[in-house]
Description:
This protein has 253 residues and is mainly alpha-helical.
Amino acid sequence: MAKKTSAEKEYTVEEKLSALYELQTLVTEIDKIKTLRGELPLEVQDLEDEIAGLETRLHNYQSEIKEYEVSVVEQKNKIVDSTALIEKYRLQLENVRNNREFDNLTKEIEFQGLEIEFSEKKIREFTELIATKKAEISGLNDTLEGRKADLSQKRNELEEIVSETKQEEEKLREKAKKLESNIEPRLLTAFKRIRKGARNGLAVVYIQRDACGGCFNKIPPQKQMDIKLRKKIIVCEYCGRIMIDPELAGVDE
């Protein structure tokens, strides 16, 4: 009969609990490194998103200014055209043959005069809009420069912390991955599920002062005895965490 491979090795409950607690210790250290980084990764992401939004707005303002400038040129061209027509109609007035022609030319001159006034009004409006947008762009550029400076500082802080902890984190993750391969899938899934639901990330805790080390609810003496015997995996009836005795955790009572 072929021998069982290391992957198929049968582990005692005590060995399973010991492996789970060791895994808990490793992932807790990884959590501490993440805590050390704090909110910096999120702050960096938020700043990057904000800068992208500001740059988009800046681009839109610049496009709007170009459109207004084109509109100003169009209105100026209309003024030139209307002025030329007025000059043309005034020359024709000198050679009118009847009152009807005189009235028609006078109306055309008046109409082109109104067109010029309208174009001048539009030019003033577009010019004001251009000035407003340029002022907004100026303020936007100041804000953008400030945010870019903040981003640079946050990135430097994050890179410094990451460079200091990266090697340590990689070692911890490697150890954790190796340890996970020796824990049966059912237990590992349960461990990750409990850990995900726990506020402090603790899925395995030891008894402290006759209470669960996770939620601090009192544990009956008989259950404490069962935990110390290490014959079966016992979870806290209140928080669902896996419980072990202090000795297995290497802690003196």
